[in-house]
Amino acid sequence: MNLTQTFASVVASSQIDANNIEPTVNNPAVATGAFSYMWLLLALPLLGAALLLIGGKRTDKWGPYFAIAMSCGAFVVGAIMYLKMLGLPANDRPVNLHIWDWVIVGRFQAPLGMQLDQLSIVFVLLITFVGSLIHIYSLGYMKHDPEKRKFFAYLNLFVAAMLLLVTADSYLLLYVGWEGVGLASYLLIGFWMYKPTAATAAKKAFVVNRVGDVGLSIAIMLMFVTFGSVTFPGVLNNAAEGNPTTMTWIGLMLLLAACGKSAQFPLQSWLLDAMEGPTPVSALIHAATMVTAGVYLIVRSGPIFDATPTARTVVMIVGAITLMFGAIIGCAKDDIKKALAGSTMSQIGYMILAAGLGPVGYVFAIFHLVTHGFFKANMFLGAGSVMHGMNDQLDMRRFGALRKVMVITFITFSCGWLAIMGVPPFAGFYSKDKIIEAAFGVNWIVGAVALLGAGITAFYMTRLWTMTFTGKSRWTEDNKHPHESSSVMWIPMAILAFLSVVAGFMLAGAIETWLAPVTGFEETELAVSSLVMEAASLALVIIGATIAYLQYRRDVPLVAPQHVSPLTVAARHDLYGDAFNEEVFMRPGQWLTRSLVFFDNRGIDGLVNGIAAALGGLSGRMRRIQTGFARSYALSMLGGAVLVIAALILVRT
Amino acid sequence: MSTTHYLVLSAILFSLGVLGVLVRRNALIVFMCVEMMLNASNLAFVAFAQQNGNLYGQTIAFFVMVVAAAEVVVGLAIIVTIYRTRRSASVDEPSLLKY
Lengths: 653, 99
Known about the structure:
The complex is a heterodimer of chains A (about 650) and B (about 100).
Chain A: H1 2-12, E1 29-30, H2 39-55, H3 63-86, E2 95-105, E3 108-116, H4 118-141, H5 148-167, H6 171-189, H7 196-227, H8 232-236, H9 244-261, H10 269-273, H11 279-288, H12 293-300, H13 302-306, H14 309-332, H15 336-355, H16 362-389, H17 402-405, H18 407-421, H19 427-442, H20 444-469, H21 487-507, H22 510-519, H23 530-552, H24 566-572, H25 577-623, H26 630-652
Parallel strand pairs in A: 1-2
Antiparallel strand pairs in A: 2-3
Helix pairs in contact in A: 2-3, 2-5, 3-4, 3-5, 4-5, 4-11, 4-16, 4-21, 5-6, 6-7, 6-11, 7-9, 9-12, 9-14, 11-16, 12-15, 14-15, 14-20, 14-24, 15-16, 15-19, 15-20, 16-18, 16-19, 16-21, 16-22, 18-19, 18-20, 18-21, 19-20, 19-21, 20-23
Chain B: H1 3-23, H2 27-52, H3 56-86
Helix pairs in contact in B: 1-2, 2-3
């Protein structure tokens, strides 16, 4: 069956030229040789998490180091897999390792297995590499935390769940990983749960994610009903023949899932609060890896979106909205981590936008995801380093002039800053400009939004950078001696900074060829040359950065000004995302529950209790008949007898 | 004398018995009235037996007498006991079995 389809697709795609590569049919080979050890990817971090959590306090001493070893071990395994894959021809690269038959019930077959192909190996390398660096960084950042062991156990749990998410060979197993990262995210956001804000933020992230998860589960059910299978080959190879309406619904439900996990409009509200977690968590989970799972889901489900232009357009629109949404929020935040979170939201908006463009964008969505993983993790770690030096101060209005006292952090952060703005030759330039070009190729409005977003990105990142590192010091009284962080913290930052610089031109061009067999690839055709596009976006970036620099170079008030434009006020309130949720979902929900409680108390309970009370009252009255006087009983007996006789007589006549 | 006369007498006796049971307080009188009702019915039975020319009614009358005798024994025993404990044979006073 699959073989026939392979031939069909080869015949159908006879018009392809060197620049347009159709995805080969999703038909992985059975894993052999080194690939048969790919289960170690999951087993190592899972072992770390299990040992540290079950071992308890006994593992306090060596636990964190063990967790780092497990994470690095997973990276080594991933690297071996990558090198092995590199030696194979493109069509032989996808491999599948069947682990065991998970659910075999009648028509429902859910084998448990791992699928490693060009797409998932990119994720495996990103997750394990950035993950390991952040593990090491955490050694310094969480040095004095009494619950350090638990923190590392959760980090390992997260790495295991995330690897499961990207190496699963079916949507059902992906769902397991999807929930696993949600759990790890919940545990880590609420790591300092003695802070009510952290506990609430964790709960909020979990609840909002649940909304998205419902979408994913509905999508999986629809897939099973439509295709009779939930495995990637079973669904994706047949997606083109699916009923368009069903495919649209599957696409929209997958988008809902992606919105929840990737903090996209309208489920974006949790990400800003998630910054309550420790900074390494924000860097790993809420910037580099977990929040990009939605992008992975959409790119992986490419054939489904190929079959439904409607859902794809919605994906694109959601991406464009979130891109602006996040950028605007990022402009108004004074909390350094929240500003970065707004930026993350916006950058993932770019990725989702690219994924919504179809084969012209899939590759660049992943490309931007990888470079963003490097430079955003770098900047979060930089922010963590600043916080560390500044006595956990988060308010950028109390920073300033840190350039001189935190030289390394300043340099690494600057690399990330230049990369996210898309200044050539930094990483963001290659990935983001490609997305903008591809967007213009599909729809000029979306392209314009993406282009404008680049300018706003430059504005808010320069604002953040300027307020933190340049100008005069505005440090608080109790914190006059900021210091550079220890080497265990700055070395991971330096590595990520290096990658923020070089990842762009290292991967540009290569990643298209690498991913095309899985995602497909089409060259964007533009009316104007790409040089003009690059010049336009660079001009906007320079304008945005200059405005921000001139505005925030000096004279930053210590307290945020109150008389500002309505847009700034709105952005400070996260563009009223929470207020909207509160008015539209929470309050009606509360009214509903209250009215239900009222109905239950007064209606249901009233009926039951009313019947009981009525019967009780009635029997209380009836009791009075029992007078105890023998003669009155005799009278009633007589009455009864007379009645019976009268009745008999009446009946007889 | 026709059966009707017997039946009228029986009805009168029975009604008197009922009346006695309902209006008198003394347990002994009430008891006697119960006996009177039993015997009124006996009279009716016998009258019918006479009319029908068989012995069924008469047999029933004997049964009633036997049962009445047994009843008298139990009933009088109860009345005597009540009288001993309460120094009264009124049927209204021992009204303990009530709500």
